[in-house]
């Protein structure tokens, strides 16, 4: 009985389909046939205005301005030659050039082909007035992205470009189309969903001569949402200036909230080259330049931390009570392991942990490393966030690498005492990113790891961040001792960062001079924090192949002096 | 009769597959957007599929009674894995890759679901039990099978794949109906579901809502789904009575229909083979489903009957919804046309189900 009912329902459903097929194909067939022979429906996309990007004080970092594109629908063009000649005259472009673009960009007879982007308003109006003479010609309103701050915040903001085939595959369910402009790096990419808005369009029916007969449908585009970032464009400017002609990075972060105040990767690039068609050559050059200006060194550069890693060692040694603040090791200027000498920068004689941090004594940490053992070093490095993604709101962050006896980079196997010694001073296989170092410094200063982020608010909805601070449970005595050591580096007359000793501004920090490949200069690091002043910050200054850490300290000192002069910190 | 039904199933299957291959060849013919690899790929899978169908027809479906829950659990685990592993990708996460071959677990879940529901319903007799104690049996006869359906359905919905999720709802109701639960309870349950429908609206993604709204009025989205519906209707209609001829469809060749090798393949058939072609293909599906109904009537055990009903349900729903979609009668929800749309997982799943149908037909009188 039940099956009989199912059968009746199935017959009924199939009959509906059959009848509709008869209706559409047999009865209305001629109508649809006419529409299909010279397909009469055209779609003219209406681009949405992309959301703007602001810094923390409301300065514009990215905005979209109206521009006009000259577009044709190939099917409706009656006389291509005549049209191109006309366009050539009005726009003062070689006719052949226009014809070449047309060949290149046309893919179906009915999809609009953009021939000339961004013509000025005057020209656009002239063309619009003469449009009736040239069926198939359209002036399309679009938007051009403009970055007023140029190079200054390029690695934070990113840039936009026309969507590529790989991306469209992934994103087509999310309102993207072939014509979409999408973010390709930085915040432009990470928050693209908010910034992009929604595409609209006109659907029109045209007659056989390509003239519009009627408007079938319209959907207004929906503008994207504005985004406010935590960075301060004035700090960006000062940092960029300090880093001029140098490769490396500067990061300043608010200790308590995890807000990034300043993020500069050098050399930089001007994101406007990606939207300005006249600068195509510059754009192509960006990607082949050996200095890789597009690379965001702060989150994608992976470098050995060198002596900065001694901060981790100190936390590990004190927390595990392998040493206390009074434990001393003797430094004769080297450490002999078998018949190999592991060097120190100076002869430091007897050192406790505070002095060793301040002087950056290798021998102290060789001894400490052997006492702690590599497993615990690995554990503490991870605990302080090294070798872990910070999940900053930027795309494609790198993880870095923290080795261990059972986890070695490349083909290497086994683990020897020599490896532990190298590990203890941040050499060997250890790799970290500058953003991880900043976060580690915040962790040491506060005993908790804030969520590093760049977003302050979307439109008028502020970001709620206080729930995402991870407490890592460092003991107070451990933190106090490490503070003292990091302070000693600055205030001690023989401290490794003594140039930083400035009146009225207390800096805590650790230097690092990291060996790189043979024949290349060392990387220079200086990272730390300040605990008083108008804002508690963690910072990291990194100079790629910059030589001794001395230079990194020098850059930091110039930076802070300039920032203080402008009353920014 | 037994031999005959088997032959009919084979014949219809082959006609449909051939029609599909011709349409695929045409859809990818001299086309820059769709590579002709889709044709060769489908050809290969057609052969593999026929072998699988043959092998399964030789097995005894009752062996799968024991395996039903295993299939179900396997499918659910894969669905979870897809969601977890694909979490960071922005696009739909239906795809899952094992050893380089990607397949959609949601397709396997379809089959796992009907096997499991068939086994479960075969142990119940709601037409009797429900009358004696309607409230005591509400749980085992209605809510347990509902939960069995809902769990994989929600995972698929999350992917997001609205079409397959809705298909699961359809399968559930049809198999519930066949289980013999009294009309008044089914009607009552349907009423409750309808009451909650407005709430479901809010959990849809914006683009899914758009698609449903567009169905009501294609002009509100002339660029997206609305455009596709209008274009596919023009394609089908312009085929008129005899069609424009193979490889001669203009709508097809001019890149009008974005997904014409998958969800909108029927429009290619409509345009190139006309009403003759579409009615033949529709007729083949009908005969196939009709044979299924015959088997369901004659099969002696309840598990076999429910399994057959489940298979019929999937075929009917996908054929009707897909063709309805192309004709603008149903919203565009993304369901494939059985054995014709390009898509390996979907294709193989249908071949497996046909294999079961054959084997049910051979054993319908055996005890």
Write up this protein.
The complex is a heterodimer of chains A (569) and B (367). Chain A has 569 residues and is an alpha+beta fold. Chain A contains 20 helices and 23 strands. In chain A, strands 2, 3, 4, 5, 10, 18 and 19 form a 7-stranded mixed β-sheet that branches. A 5-stranded antiparallel β-sheet of chain A has the order 12-11-23-22-21, sandwiched between helices. Chain A has a 3-stranded antiparallel β-sheet with strand order 1-8-9, with no helix packed on it. In chain A, helix 13 crosses helix 16. Chain A is elongated. Chain B has helices at 2-27, 37-58, 63-85, 105-122, 126-132, 138-157, 162-178, 183-203, 206-216, 225-238, 250-253, 265-298, 302-326, 344-362; strands at 96-98, 101-103. In chain B, helix 6 runs antiparallel to helix 7 (162-178). Chain B has 367 residues and is mainly α. Chain B has a two-stranded antiparallel ribbon. Chain B is 71% helix and 2% strand. Chains A and B meet through helix 1, helix 2, strand 1, helix 7 and strand 8 of A and helix 7, helix 10, helix 12 and helix 13 of B.
Outline the fold blueprint.
The complex is a heterodimer of chains A (569) and B (367).
Chain A (H helix, E strand, L loop, with lengths): L1 H26 L1 H9 L3 E6 L6 E2 L5 E13 L7 H12 L3 H11 L7 E7 L1 H9 L7 E10 L7 H4 L2 E3 L2 H7 L9 E3 L2 H5 L1 H4 L4 E7 L5 E8 L7 E3 L3 H10 L5 E7 L5 E7 L13 H9 L8 H4 L9 H10 L9 E3 L2 E4 L2 E4 L5 E3 L1 H7 L2 H11 L1 H10 L33 H8 L9 H13 L1 E2 L5 E4 L2 E2 L7 E2 L4 H16 L15 E8 L8 E8 L6 E7 L5 H17 L4
Helix pairs in contact in A: 3-4, 10-20, 13-15, 13-16, 13-19, 14-19, 15-17
Chain B lengths: L1 H26 L9 H22 L4 H23 L10 E3 L2 E3 L1 H18 L3 H7 L5 H20 L4 H17 L4 H21 L2 H11 L8 H14 L11 H4 L11 H34 L3 H25 L17 H19 L5
Antiparallel strand pairs in B: 1-2
Primary descriptors:
heterodimer; A: 569 residues; alpha+beta; seven-stranded mixed sheet; elongated; B: 367 residues; mainly alpha; two-stranded antiparallel sheet; 14 helices; globular
